[in-house]
């Protein structure tokens, strides 16, 4: 493990730190070392590709990390440290760049929630996730690298401050994120510089949130300057803050259920929390126009929330999250334009001694204002908790135009609160128009607060409490084409891509020449490497609007990928001409990059220089374009200037793999002996070596520009790295393609044969260049099963299912008998062709080759379940290895088999003596437990075992901690209570019977789930038959409406069953399974008929 080195970015002070020796004077200490943290081991990654068709999280080409264990061990992590006399900050690059600890050296306490173990929960997009500290989420909530290694570097700055950089390229989108964590001398704040970069020629969806954990205690209050709140459900109603439905939600202790609250239209730059007992708080500050999102999250104080204390930690208790974000909510993402760079700064810091909270905060200080009336003498008290050392400040109290008092403190010191008290004539008046100003010695405003301003700082807020800000999109025969398209965009931003595509296609069915939809669809096919269809779509768009810059730019991309270079150049120039007129820089920067790369590919390096320079003129922060420019400069014979340019790129984005590699190439080109300085080699290689995909990405970039030798050099460096196994096959395919382009055909053949001999199952291509390389291999070597398999993965991930399956079948016929390939073919037959018999056959073969891959068993059991083949399910579990049977998902499926065949005791046995690890929000284990106890109780009733039935129904209302599901604040137990009443009635316990039925009846209000039916049945038992029948009729009627959901059919089936309409109930349950074959409750119900 590399623990002793820390290399800084080029052009700035470069240092290697072998120990934690402090810097001299007031400079911030910065060093790399190690930290040992008890860690619960992760099981092996899922070997099967997480295709969008089968995985709700858009993480392809990553693997899923959802195999959690109870095995705890001491593990050593690399750690970056920043320290001054106020704070010590610990950052863990191997865990997503988390800020693990911010320690307050003055108050001797952790500022944030520090988790003393690494204990994974199933919360992240790939599964494993950890709580505590600060997490950086891009391009969706909880980044794909949240528990994986990211790139990192340390930098010492001329002003004595130091910066730790963490960041990575997200391989789903190929966008880049970078966080610069800076600690300055004589300050007590963490400065967070955010850089987001769409390094691709396409737009991509993104969001960014900093997820900061704070200790949750009963004395903690949320200090959020807001009047109204919204949720991540865009159709939910706006709520009032802080009091909603009679509850003051600003106190952690007052929220029993989980909450996710977002500030609405706040125009203030701060928020945070405050602990009343310790008179201590945590503050966040950022420009609200750049970073408007202000979110608070809590698991809640009910057992359903508290149980996560133990799921995610051993002994560190509860935490809450206070989050800052690029957008107002996490309910949607926005499109980032190609080559766009977004940058802003945030601050996080502790405060103390503020008498209960703060009313304003800046990057320099937080303040609180109190109104006192001691002994009949009205006074105003200002308390300041400074964040930086400030000398010669002026503190001014004003009431209207009247100056009440001016103070001149000598020096404000971080974490040393200071108070000023001013007598006033009337507290009621001063509450309305008091103003406080604090200016620097030079007259620069440091803080301003006014009592007359709205708490959210927004004088133009339109009150919307009780109303939704938007309505659900409704499509009718009269919906306009433009509205269909906009609704499609909204669905796409909300993560519903399939539904969005249907609306785009519907728009085109009404108007085949609607340009925005044509362009969108053309780029969709381009991303999937279906260039033929993309050309057809974009040609229709340009026939309608030849001057549309986006259509022209899109056609340039499509023609370039189709190797129709002249047409591509014409299209890019059109986008530049008309794009500049409409929106300068919007398309021009990206188009000039494309033109520059085309010239580089054709060997016209001088011309390429011109284009790259124009791109940078439009977009000076585009470090990738600077790397492009350095390539052209090097190839044009000036490696020294090239090195200066790539160094400039690294000053902007010090972890960008392409800039790191090019700087290495530039430095190497200056050395006549062909070797560069060891520090440069060590720097670029060690920075990116934690993720071998970096090498493929860089090689792909060089290959795309025709810089074959540089691509080759990078690949050889990657193959010599510590983690080459994951990229070996693809690296050799690229080496073969490079050799072929260089005219070395014998070497190309050797590389191709080498690639075909290497493990390939974990290769999940996701770049268009990957497609081109693999397609060329297949054309030259049709019998290369590995290349066919890998290309099939790309195609299937991009919804080209039949073509993928053909490639996979060919690979199998060529002798690539691999469990992942067989699983892929099984998925195709199951999810695409609905051929359950063939799907099962493929899975059986996959299990034979990989008998310990527990995920294969759960899939196969689901297939058998859809077939209704319980005998095959029984045989499957009978022959399953013991260690596989112990897995959570396999136990759940095994229990479902018993439940669906009315064997509740066996189902419950599968759930006992085992600790389950549910996904966030996952309640299936508890639901199976409830259903099994209810089924057992009903059997006991039928057998006259009324006391035993009572015990079973009472058990159905319990929440065993081993399930990972705690009792919610308002549990839904109408079904259990209804049947418990029956059991009690049978025993003659009439008073208790009436009581539980009344409780059951009370749960039916305002809900649309099965509890409504059993609440109605309880009402009937209480003598309200007419009222009960009306409820049942409404449930049945709901199933006759258009676009009925599986849940609505199920509810109607239950209502019909208890209305003694058995055949109608059977029909509804059958409809449920036609919509959702895995709706196990309907299967249980059918078996009982």
TrEMBL record:
<keyword id="KW-0802">TPR repeat</keyword>
<feature type="repeat" description="TPR">
    <location>
        <begin position="589"/>
        <end position="622"/>
    </location>
</feature>
<dbReference type="Pfam" id="PF17128">
    <property type="entry name" value="DUF5107"/>
</dbReference>
<dbReference type="Pfam" id="PF14559">
    <property type="entry name" value="TPR_19"/>
</dbReference>
<feature type="domain" description="DUF5107">
    <location>
        <begin position="56"/>
        <end position="351"/>
    </location>
</feature>
<keyword id="KW-0732">Signal</keyword>
<feature type="repeat" description="TPR">
    <location>
        <begin position="1046"/>
        <end position="1079"/>
    </location>
</feature>
<protein>
    <recommendedName>
        <fullName>DUF5107 domain-containing protein</fullName>
    </recommendedName>
</protein>
<dbReference type="InterPro" id="IPR019734">
    <property type="entry name" value="TPR_rpt"/>
</dbReference>
<feature type="repeat" description="TPR">
    <location>
        <begin position="481"/>
        <end position="514"/>
    </location>
</feature>
<feature type="signal peptide">
    <location>
        <begin position="1"/>
        <end position="25"/>
    </location>
</feature>
<dbReference type="InterPro" id="IPR033396">
    <property type="entry name" value="DUF5107"/>
</dbReference>
<dbReference type="InterPro" id="IPR011990">
    <property type="entry name" value="TPR-like_helical_dom_sf"/>
</dbReference>
<dbReference type="Pfam" id="PF13432">
    <property type="entry name" value="TPR_16"/>
</dbReference>
